[in-house]
């Protein structure tokens, strides 16, 4: 990047629309102890809870995590505004705390192709050769075949299986449709433990990728007993050219240095926020390019085809996650706006400012860099455990 423009992180956008009414927990890097701390965000400031909960995993595993947060006094580290201002990677002061991704020991998983209606609409557009009138005819034929509104199609249902047979007969079946309307969801590993980046950090795309995009999503926080205890925002950065070449390249398309952003915090379920709110959440995306280009998009959770609880159950049906996991729920959004030339579509440029925001979950804001040039991931599990031990936190509480 020739120049690194400030992200201009704003407190009013960082916070949910209802401010501090909910239970907001995050992780902060503390330069004075050279390690991370679990914190609570309150109107009076950011409070370190690590004396009671050394890890986010241990906090989320409590019977009532939100109640625990309100009962823990914590140590004040500064105001939310101060720490947010230091979180822009381009402006960080090495001696001041900044926000990290809010998860730590949790595995990071992602669900793909969870919005069946949008997937089927793309097939309709393809079959109609871009003709709206013809698309309406194709859609009517499909509805007549399956006997239901396509937007209400439930994966794995008899109607979905009838549509599957219809599409196969039309030569339109694919592996993506299998997980889009079939009984089994696509759930894959997005990122290693502790590798996710938080708000203000650079997000990474590979240098050899020429077609890539952000994916604005809601991310569930699931504890070690498979309970959904909260939610955050996430950017499941995707390299469309690599995945397009082969689905077997999914790991290269999805899991690269700085390619997973989560944050800015986890909003725990309490009287102000719950799973029903997640199911209705609208996630807005804005990309501001260094050349003045602007892309806007939206991911509406009301159109998700699979219930969030069902995705968690599928993820844990034959596997346990004793430290919990974070689960990206997928996105309705796919960018089609041309950026450089007609018909060229959208792809990232270095320096893009990517802001993802929703009413209950605030704003996650990052800057695009190359994975090869983004800050290397060096603070892994050994460093984390050694840091907690050096601070005397392991003797006080279980991880």
Unreliable spans are none
Arithmetic mean of pLDDT: 91
Structural class label: alpha+beta
**Share of residues in strands:** 25-35%
Helical stretch tally: 13
Shape descriptor reads globular
Major beta sheet summary: 11 strands, mixed
What helical percentage do the residues reach?
A: 25-40%
Please explain how this structure is put together.
This protein is α+β, with helices and mostly antiparallel strands and 399 residues long. The chain has 13 helices and 18 strands. A hairpin with a 4-residue loop joins strand 1 and strand 2. Helix 5 (116-127) crosses helix 6 (132-146). The chain is globular, with a radius of gyration of 21 Å. The mean pLDDT is 91.
Nutshell version of this structure?
The chain is α+β, with helices and mostly antiparallel strands. 26% of the residues lie in helices and 26% in strands.
Task: Spell out the blueprint of helices and strands.
Elements: H1 11-14, E1 23-30, E2 35-42, E3 45-48, H2 56-60, H3 65-71, E4 75-78, H4 80-85, E5 98-100, E6 107-112, H5 116-127, H6 132-146, H7 158-169, H8 175-181, E7 186-191, E8 202-205, E9 212-213, E10 216-222, E11 228-236, E12 238-239, H9 240-245, H10 250-254, E13 260-268, H11 275-280, E14 282-288, E15 294-300, H12 308-316, E16 325-328, E17 353-358, E18 362-370, H13 381-390
Helix pairs in contact: 5-6
